[in-house]
Amino acid sequence: MTTITTRSHADVAAHVATTIDGIFAMIDAWRDHLEAELQTDAALTAARIDPLIEAFAVPAVSGETLLTGAGFVAAPGVLADAEWHLAWWLGGTGRPLRRLATIDDPSHDQFRDYTALEWWRVPTTTGGRHLTGPYVDYLCTDDYTVTVTTPVRVRGEIVGVVGADALVDRLERELLPAMRTGATPATLVNASGRVVTSTDARREPGSILRTEGLVDAIRRATVEPVPLDGGAVLACGDTSLALLVEV
Questions:
Q1: Is 23 helix (H, G, I), strand (E, B) or coil?
Q2: 159 and 209 share one domain
Q3: Beta partners for residue 231, in sequence order
Q4: 151 preceded by cis ω (within 30°)?
Q5: Residue pLDDT, tens place only, 171-194
Q6: Is 204 part of a structural domain of the chain?
């Protein structure tokens, strides 16, 4: 006979936090490394920065990993040899390793201003790391993706963001088994109430939950449940994600 252990809601939220915190910690380490390497009087150039990025991005998206992309995106005009610049590598489980090809000429009809995108706009405005998504990443994968980014500063100035992408289907494979052992059905949502994954098949990744008061409950959530319309909301650490559970 197989015995299935039921986890508390708090334990499930903690498992989610531990998984996402691993990505956060990795990105924070990349930021610290870059800031230490770039705090000199030498000119900031793509030729100088790209090898630094490649050294950590390629291993991060090689082999069995939750990540499908990683790298650095420069602030426009900050590099002496490139007005716009992405140093981003793609790979991950079952995918070939390659560098993302981009169009950096603003006059080109396929040029895309990345400074308008959430994963750039929010962290460069707030000065802190940010989790974007899930969203369909038309730039890299055409799949539902979660992106974590954080600013890189040189002598107090934000020179770009460093970050990583994780495909939602890979996160589901990591998180759903633990969520299914929870005491009741559960849905993982971002700060806006957008579904990351759920034990309820009717709640698809990327969909928005319209439950009244949900966003406010997410903002107030801690490890202690915040009651909400027949359920409760628990924070998943400081990841900005929350677990919506039935009670």
A1: helix
A2: no
A3: 228, 246
A4: no
A5: 999 999 999 999 899 999 999 999
A6: yes
